[in-house]
């Protein structure tokens, strides 16, 4: 029991911060999400309605935003995984001399402000941006491609921002795969590809899932990048919540959306942690 | 099954040469140990045979096939790792089946071969378990079953027993020897444990600093070490400085010993090796043996054996081992003793060859 108490004591500073800055505001927000909102009048005192929640699935516009957010989450996660795995593999299994420069290269974007990085992408992706100008000059296209204010721009921006998280998770997972296991598979007749498929990939599954959860959760709750690269029309849940609160002053609807987003996040984390256990053969 | 030949094999890492021009021929079905201290290049040789490390020069042949540039999966070898390297995400059955599946086996034939391999290491019925549910010794046996199941041409062992405790290690040694005899697979076994190497092998290859010091039967390695390094590495030798004098080896002004080693060249400085276990404290009355008078300086009891440090001659010391239950088991420090050493147990080697 002593170790349990030590654990609680070690955890308590973080617990206090979380309680004060996250849990309490969340609980205070809960009643608001069941209030009725009348445009021009504000929140109707003493009212109780489930309408704010029903609307999220019933209303076409809201449903579209929710599905778009989840789709964006899947897209960015897959993109980060496909781009990140080779990099992580190179960092762990490549020449030792490359390890530090590659790791720094991966971490470096994290040192730049989010807004700065998003502006960087705007410079690159606008109709008269670097990418389009280059493609037109080379003669590959005649009219500029629409790379911004749509799913393409937001996916590119978010993938760039969350790639380091995925790579770092995968590096940790790959470092836990003993070289001897890959060597053993090779001596038993596995080609390099089969070694990867039969040994490396399954043994890094926990890292793949952990990295995917992280990127997915960060993506569906991202605000700044979707706002900047998606513009005012390309709404995701986070930007919608922001608008409900700040533009429409519809706090009940914003609260309900916030809870829906939090619920979706928790659900995804729960499902994936079960999947991890099964994949790793630990269930 | 086939023989294994290494021909002038070299491995260099930028400026360091870890394996220097090693040539080694292992007969079909033979069990050969590579023995040496850590860093002597023995594991590097094993990994070059497995194809996990590319040699910088020389050729490696399995049977009449040159495998020097072949990847490990094309060599048809079985490798047992010190860490066992079992696949943690696969059951014991799937671990053993791994190599068989790569050879295109499936269905009942595969199951039969897996069952056969597991029965050989006495783990029948453990197929559905995961490696983490097994003890260290059982994991080691699974690793062996996995290596032998695809019937490799050559079996390679990389210090497979050094992670086991002493009792289990003895059991596994016998198991391993029996298994290798039954299968008759050419085997290369890397170890730093001399007792393991001597008891398991048909021939032992003693290595130091990437060079083969001696490649011979265990008895020869033990009784007729070729170099001072082998003499000092095998057994528990006393190492003394001496000079050749009139067909004998002199340890100081008075003390001269007879030896069956080469004693030519008067005045030549030499190293004298006498094993602790070759020195007798009991008077035999035999005139042909060397007699050395000394005084017990220290007694150390370790169960069945007692060790004495005996001061001889002017300033030399010999460590002597005796059974604790015998008449010589109870000598007190300060007591004078007469030591007897047979001339064949006095090994004389040139000092130039000493490391």
Task: Kindly list the characteristics that best describe this protein.
heterodimer; A: 283 residues; mainly alpha; two-stranded antiparallel sheet; globular; B: alpha+beta; OB fold (Dihydrolipoamide Acetyltransferase, E2P); 2 domains; 8 helices; 24% helix; 34% strand
Provide an overview of this structure.
The complex is a heterodimer of chains A (283) and B (355). Chain A is mainly α and 283 residues long. Chain A contains 13 helices and 2 strands, in the order αββαααααααααααα. Chain A has helices at 2-32, 51-58, 60-93, 96-107, 114-125, 130-138, 151-175, 179-187, 192-203, 205-220, 224-230, 237-246, 251-279; strands at residues 36-38, 42-44. In chain A, α2 crosses α3 (60-93). The longest helix of chain A is centred in the first third of the chain and has 34 residues, at 60-93. Chain A is globular. The relative contact order of chain A is 0.12. Chain B has 355 residues and is an alpha+beta fold. Chain B is built from 8 helices and 19 strands. In chain B, the strands form 4 sheets. A 6-stranded mixed β-sheet of chain B has the order 6-7-8-3-9-10, with helices on both faces. Chain A binds chain B through residues 178, 180-181, 183-192, 194, 198-199, 202-203, 280-281, and chain B through 50-52, 71-73, 75-79, 81, 83, 85-90, 98-99, 102-103, 130, 146-147, 150, 156.
Q: In what order do the strands lie side by side in the largest sheet of chain B?
A: 6-7-8-3-9-10
Extract low-pLDDT stretches of chain B. none
C-alpha Rg of chain A (nearest Å):
23 Å
Determine the number of helices of chain A (DSSP H or I, runs of at least 4 residues): 13
Q: What is the helical fraction of chain B, as a range of percent?
A: 10-25%
The name of the CATH superfamily of the largest domain in chain B reads: P-loop containing nucleotide triphosphate hydrolases
Shape estimate of chain A: globular
